[in-house]
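Quick board copy: two proteins, each given as sequence then tokens.
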Amino acid sequence: MKHEIEEWLNGEGEKFLKYMGIEEGQNILDFGCGNGIYSIPAARVAGRRGKVYALDNNKNSIKELRERAYSEGLDNIIVVEDTKGIDDKSVDIVLLYDVLHYMEKNQRDDVYSEIYRILKTGGILSVYPKHNKSDWPMWNLSDMSIDDIVKEIENSGFRLERKYHKRLMHDGSNETGTVLNFRRASFTAAFGTDDKKNLNDSHFGSAKFFHIYKFGNGKAEFVEERENIKVEEDESIKGDDPKKAKATSNALSGIDVLAGRRFGPNITRMMNKFLCIVVRTDSVNNAVDMMKSNMGRILAEMNKKNRKHIVLTSSGGENENTNSLHVRS
């Protein structure tokens, strides 16, 4: 058993967590971290640009985690007593491994709700639901199948992306377990329009209005209409001037995705804050339907560090996904 733990902490754990989606520079929450069997390798993968929030109510386990982190110089592990101090949409991945069986249904719902709050749009919730009815059933998961657990989590605003059967650590030993990866399955998108029916023909930032929709659980709901805030006309201000990008960004506070027929030279600045989608259609309604059909892909791209723009076509053919855009000044 000790040999297996050392192998895990000396490379195998990092390989596993990279496979689950953890990357350098990310923020991770290890909920129910124990003595750090996942926090330690997660901190190594995240590196100095990332951080790992470690949460557990077992003081002895936390002490052991602190000692190991100190001995390895891992100063990017932050022990927290709860998630209240973690900002909204600030965490890339949450690990919920071997803890659900301790919680009753109302407690689990509260945990899902809090994870939804802190997880970035498109972020990953990775769940190892040990002790379900097909895997050493115990306590609050003893009567729940994997499908029951998936349904419960999806009802809390997440979308199952993939199911894994992988070797991982449980109580100090290697075993094969089922890991479920979900995405925070909602985002808000702004569609540029001049006539409130069709996407504007010029670049996105020149639209008179932005129609805001919320996407989640395979549905799209109209939220509001916003008037575009423009920089005063000045011939000295070019199309790629940061003042114009800032003005458009101010009008799009709280938005995750921008959708339009074309984007201007400020696309590189806008991509730092938003995911940009070129939609090859005229009507806003058609664009909304195309986005709704590609929610999984959009959510996955949103969570990437070096994300690229997406091009959606009404023909249903293969969509582009590149770093370059044809722009209009």
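And the next:
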Amino acid sequence: MQPQTQTMSLPTDKFLTVAINLLNKAFLENNRTEAKRIYRDIEEGKTVSLTRLEMEDKSQVRIDLALDHREYKGKLRFTSFRTGLTLLIAQVADALREEKPLRTFQNESDPGSILFGFTAVTAENDIPSVLLLGADSRRGHPSILLRLAYFDFQQFEDQLAVGEGNMADVSVSIAQAEDEVASEVDSEADS
């Protein structure tokens, strides 16, 4: 007999709030040694469990994390990953705070897989990279997989206007995002 699974939904804004808080805690608030350990595991293709989330009905959902960096150009290092993640977290946090519409894209071949419409563009050695966040619900399992994935920047070239003329803008955006996340962490620590 197959175990029965119950389907519960969480509004996109609440799910994204949980997701960015978990990513922030794992990589930005965590001590560097522990953050690098988690990074090494996902960089090697492992799935890491981040937490168990208790739903309103008291059921629990495990939230895991994976990284797909096949389309990253060059050698991905922790510092580069963390910079892109900082920018991604800041973009999501800004959209949630400003109550902007949240775009999602569903995989036609897998309705349990979605990609959120936020792109974190960074550049290393003048080669841009695009980091996105997605989520996969695992059929038959009480878990959700957060998937950070790098995509070929050329797929987004028109939308992002990535080019030599605005790589400085990307660097400024990264610095601003790091400052915003740091000030949010400081203000949360004060409260």
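Board note added afterward: The radius of gyration is 17 Å.
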